[in-house]
Amino acid sequence: MATLNPQDLPLGSPEPEAASPEAAVPLQLFSITRVNKQALRVSLDMAAPETLTLRALSLAGDVLVEQDVALDWRRVGGSARCGGPSEAAPVVLNITS
Fold first, then answer.
1. Could you read off the pLDDT of 40-77 as tens digits, one per residue?
2. Which residues contact 27 (CB under 8 A, 6 or more apart)?
3. Which of 30, 86, 88, 89 could disulfide-link to 71, CB 3.0 to 4.6 Å?
4. What is the DSSP annotation of 56-94?
């Protein structure tokens, strides 16, 4: 199993002014933090996509593995009436070398 290297990951989405005014999809702001040697936590700003595509790249930029995943969101604060923060269950992406 390959080791995740957060130095090779973008640590946030582009600044809002970097988006084209004609962009059909608004930018999703996010941040990535290391949990441990093999795990990262991704935080999204005011977004809860139903699915996402995870892709692990080699240092040369080759795709090592790609996986589409469905996210199971659960509210972890606030109320049913007003909403609140949510989190999805962990997603595992197995990378073999």
1. 888 887 778 899 898 888 889 999 999 999 999 999 99
2. 13, 14, 16, 18, 19
3. 88
4. EE-TTS-EEEEEEEE--EEE-SSBTTTB--EEE------
